[in-house]
Amino acid sequence: MHSGGISNHNMLKVATLQGAEALGLSKDLGSIEEGKLADLVILKKNPLENIRHTNTVRYVVKNGFVYDAETLNMVYPMEKKQTYPWTQKVPSSNLPGIQKK
């Protein structure tokens, strides 16, 4: 839609408020209002200046917790470093032909 000429502001409305309205969910989400679900992203750059700035995510807010978008470490309400199985050291193996690291 943006490539077709829609403004940055209207593109954001389509992706949020009007998208929620189309799905019949505008009472629960699509805008930041009291009583609505409020999972959102905080961007480093202004998407009104360039719509491609929507990919500059700095923080993710999910269920009242704030996470660093690059590491997914929790930064609010407390700091907590996340650990994931795929970031751990390779387990040692006693299998023949596999070298231990």
List descriptors.
101 residues, alpha+beta, 17% strand
List the helices and strands and how they pair.
Layout: H1 8-15, H2 17-22, E1 40-43, E2 57-62, E3 65-68, E4 74-76
Antiparallel strand pairs: 1-2, 2-3, 3-4
Helical content stands at 10-25%
- Output the structural class: alpha+beta
Helix count, DSSP H or I runs of 4 or more residues: 2
How many domains?
2
Largest beta sheet: strand ordering:
1-2-3-4
**Sheet of most strands:** 4 strands, antiparallel
What Rg do the Cα atoms give?
20 Å
Q: Report the uncertain regions.
A: none
Average pLDDT for all residues: 88
Q: Tally of extended strands? A: 4
The backbone outline, from C-alpha atoms, is elongated
SSE order, as H and E? HHEEEE
Our measurement of the CA-to-CA distance between the termini, rounded to an integer number of angstroms, reads: 51 Å
- Beta fraction: 15-25%
Plain-language structure description:
The chain is an alpha+beta fold. It has two domains: 32 residues, no CATH class; 45 residues, no CATH class. Helix content is 14%, strand content 17%. It is built from two helices and four strands. The chain has a four-stranded antiparallel beta sheet with strand order 1-2-3-4, with no helix packed on it. The chain is elongated and about 60 Å long. The N and C termini lie far apart (51 Å). The model has no long low-confidence stretch (mean pLDDT 88).
